[in-house]
Amino acid sequence: MKKQKGVSVVEFALVAPVYFLLIFGIIEFGLLFWSDLTMQYAVREGARYAITGQVNLDPNTSNQQRYRAIIQKMDDSSMGLWNKVNPTISVSLNGGPFQQYGSASSYNTGMFGNAGDIVTLQLNCSWPLTTALIGNFFSGGTGTFTVGATMRNEAFPS
Question: pTM for this one?
Fold first, then answer.
């Protein structure tokens, strides 16, 4: 019986790394899925706003542009994740090929189409993984995902 002293500490030392990796992995994947669902909501809200042709959400009040208003709507709906996931916007008009807009300098006035166009809007996002061992299973230590929405623009004045 006296030789059993300290066995539980050794057993804990053997099991603890696997246990903590499992716990942190569950948390990490939970955050990844949460960001995916949040950005899906943001792109859906952006698409719903896009079909109306409105410009009132553009922060530049002197020269409001529709594309800036749509991007602002997605940013507002992302619960603060917009800058963290660093999305790349891809847009397909009327079933055509996707045009990718990687940064604010590449955005333009016609990127979300005109009245009556069918617009498919996608956001390609990356989520930085903080747990080192789990991050090794993903390229670059980030989890990537794509969210999207397709809608037809309403008849709005150009």
Answer: 0.85
